[in-house]
Specification:
The protein is of the alpha+beta class. The chain has 3 helices and 5 strands. The chain has a 3-stranded antiparallel beta sheet.
Length: about 160
């Protein structure tokens, strides 16, 4: 592997680290607000997720299009304009990580004594499932660790290449 290839491997893994760090931050925010029934807008906290989107056609997609015809998506992604974007550009395409709101319904719990209860006595809680968030956190943490291991392997290869 040429030294340039080692630096490319480090670049790819470091963008993976950034993406997983962002995902971990969003999960931590979701967990911290799992019981928040009222935000500044007066609504319960709405779960956020990080989605990775391809914004330019990658080499694989262009080859696949030539072989089987036109590719079509089954559902569009609706991304709020105020969302933050992380972009990673490679030779064959571009990937964006965007923080989007999960529009699934809020969890309704009957508690007429709660200050945020509606006229029927139900309180709308965030659409955050703590178990799902913990599983996502473990997955993102392991992906982060895998990227760290890849960077360390690339650094070791670079050191050995310089010793030759």
């Amino acid at each position: 592997m040429a030294l340039r290839g080692i630096f490319t491997a480090i670049d790819i893994s470091s963008s993976g680290l950034s993406a997983q760090r962002r995902k971990l931050n969003v999960i931590a925010s979701n967990l911290a607000n799992a019981e928040t029934t009222r935000t500044e807008t007066g609504q319960p906290y709405r779960r956020r997720v990080v989605e990775f989107l391809q914004t330019q056609e990658a080499a694989f997609a262009s080859v696949l299009r030539r072989v089987i015809g036109k590719l079509e998506t089954t559902h569009p992604h609706h991304i709020p304009s105020a969302s933050e974007t992380i972009e990673a550009e490679a030779q064959y395409g571009r990937v964006e990580a965007q923080e989007v709101l999960d529009n699934s319904p809020f969890r309704l719990v009957y508690d007429p004594s709660h200050p945020d209860a509606d006229a029927n006595g139900y309180v709308a809680y965030p659409n955050v499932n703590v178990v799902t968030e913990m599983v996502d956190m473990i997955t993102a943490s392991r992906a982060y660790e895998a990227n760290v291991a890849a960077i360390n392997a690339a650094k070791d290869m670079a050191k050995r290449a310089l010793e030759i």
